[in-house]
Amino acid sequence: MEPDVFVLGGGLMKSKDYFLEELIKKVDDYVYEANLKDKSAQLSVDAKFLEKYSQKYSDSADYIWRTLPLAGSDKDNYEEPTISYFVVDPYDVDDTRSDMYCYGFDGTWYRGTKLATVDKKGKVTFNGKGEVRIFAVDTAQTGDGVHAYVDLIINASPDSVKGKNIKMSVGQGIYLSHYLEYKEGKNKVENYQYDYADLSIDKESDENFYIVRWGGDYWIRALNPGAKLTLKVTDSVVKANKGSDTTVTITTTAFMCIILSFISPIMALLQTIPSCVMGGVCITLYGFIAVSGLKMIQKVNLEDNANLFTVSVILIAGIGGMSMAIGKVTLTSIACALLLGIFVNIILNKFKKPAKEKK
Prior knowledge:
Helix content is 23%, strand content 37%. It is of the alpha+beta class and 359 residues long. The chain folds into three domains: 5-155, Immunoglobulin-like (Sandwich), CATH 2.60.40; 160-256, Immunoglobulin-like (Sandwich); 273-350, no CATH class. α7 runs antiparallel to α8. Residues 1-24 have low confidence and may be disordered.
C-alpha cells in the first residue's frame, strides 16, 4: 500500500545521524541556508505509512510515521513510496502552462533552475549562489497532501574569477560578466555572474568600442572591424576575498559576413530588399565608416606636411572617383585611395628626416 500523506519534517540533514544544524542554518519553518563550499546536504522526508497488509480505508488500518528511507522491520511491514524531487526558482513564476515552466504542486508554474540538483535518494547538490525551492512529490498519489517543499538559500563568496576571450562582429553587444567564470575554492559558482557581479575595468572608453557601465556590469558594443581591446577586470567580492584580477581580450571581425556572402539563399534574400531601403542602409554604413576614419585622423599630426599630403591623396582619390584598369581588372576609387595612401606614406616616411630633439 502507498503512504497516505507525507511532509518534510526535520528539514535537511548532513547524514543519517547528523541533523541540519551542523551544516545548514534554519531561517524559518521552511527556509534554510547553506554554503556552496559544503557541496551537498540530505533531505529528510517524514511520511505517514500504511501497513502492507491493512486495508487503506478500513477503520482498523494501522499507520506509522517514519523518516525515509525505511530500515529494518519497518521496511518489511510498510510500503515505501516513490518520490520525485523538483528544483525551481521560487521567484520565476508564470500563471499559464509553458514548456519552460514546471508545475509547482501549489497551483503555480515555476521555471526550473540549475543552482541545485536532487537525486532519487533526496541528496541535494549545490551548484551556485541563490535561492531555490525544492518540491518532494509522491507521484503515485493525487490530490492534496501528497507534496511538500522547502526553500533553500545557497550562499557563496567566490575567491577567483577567470575571463574568456571574446570574438564579436561589428554592431554586436555583450555583457562583460557573461564571459566570466567564478569559483569558490575548487567549486564553480553557477549563475553568479548574471546576478551578483560587481565589476570595474581599467579602460572605460575606446574608439573601437562603445562601453557603458550597467549596474555592476558593463555593456560593450563593437564599432569597427579588426579591432582589439584588452581589459583588466576586477570583481569587488573576489578582491575582498584576496582573489586576483582577470584579463579579457575582445576582438572584432567581419569574417562572418564574408562566409555569408557565399551562401546563395542569403544573397537571394538580400536581393529582395527594395533599392530605397538598401540605399538608406548604404548611407548609414558608409557614413559610419567615414566618421570612424575621421576619428582616427584626430590623432594624426596634420601640421606635419608628410601626414597632410598622405591624407590629401587619400581624400582626393576616394572622393574624386579615381579608378584604374589593369588588363581585365579594374580598381575602384576606394581601392585606388587605399593603395595610393599606403605607397605615399611608405615613400614619404622613407625619405623623412628625423626630428631634432629639443635641448
